[in-house]
Structures are given as C-alpha cells and as structure tokens.
Design a protein that fits this description.
By secondary structure, the chain is an alpha+beta fold. The protein contains four helices and five strands; from the N terminus they run αβββααββα. It is about 25% helix and about 20% strand.
Length: about 150
Amino acid sequence: KERFPGMTITYALIQMLEKVAEKTDLARIITKAKVFKLVTEGGAVVGCVYEKGGQNFQEFGPVIFATGGFGADFTSNSLLAQYRPDLMHLPTTNGEHCTGDGIKMGEAIGAKTIDLEWVQVHPTGLVKPDDADAKIKFLAAEALRGVGGIVLD
C-alpha cells in the first residue's frame, strides 16, 4: 500500500534514475543542493548554478525542471499573490518546498508561462489540533482512500 499519493510511481522513477547514474555517465545525482540560477548561452539553457554546503557549483548539460508548484509561498511577491491573491488566505496541501523557484528561474531568463491562475484547491487537508492554523496541511483524501477510508460531507 502507498504511504502517500503517487508514492509508487515516485519511487520507481527515483530507482530508475539511480540505476542510470550508477551505470552510465548520462546522469549524476547531487543531494542536499539548491539550484538558484540557470546558465544560458546564445538563448539556450546550457547548465545551472547550485548551492551545496555553503559553496556554489556549476553543472553543464541538459537541464530538466521538475520543481513542483508554488502553492506554499504566501509571501507578498509570490506567484500565488500575483496570479491568485484570492487564495492567499487558504492553507495548502503542497509541501513547504513548493514555492515556485523553478518557475521564477525560468521567467528570469525569459521563459513564458501559461495557466498559472489555475490553482487546484483541496478541501480535505488534515487539521492538527495542536496547530489548527498551520498554513501547510497534509492532503487527507487520497491517503485516507488509499487505506480504505470514506470521505463524507
């Protein structure tokens, strides 16, 4: 049984990438790092700059963005504030890492975005009694249904 929604596919993808990185030079996995800038040359993305352990490093080659959304950034200059200010008062079931950093990096080099106003809102976040006002909630519906639960209104 899955422990979180999408766990099976997420772990399968991670395991495949680990195998590719172990057996070839087509991929390298760098953990505990944060990309903060894309490197461009002649209008094309050719690499990135990241921070790890207080130092900056560069990698060159194809760049694939898999950075998630922006629903957990409640700052005044967030993508949520820009595209859906009407949702700023609601909590999110996104992880606290979903702050739109990848989208913002793309925009900084001229990437175009579409449909950012289409933000999915889940009405079934679990409320922790000792932290009822937390802005980040655990998504209950899929997890509960995954173990046989029924959601009633």
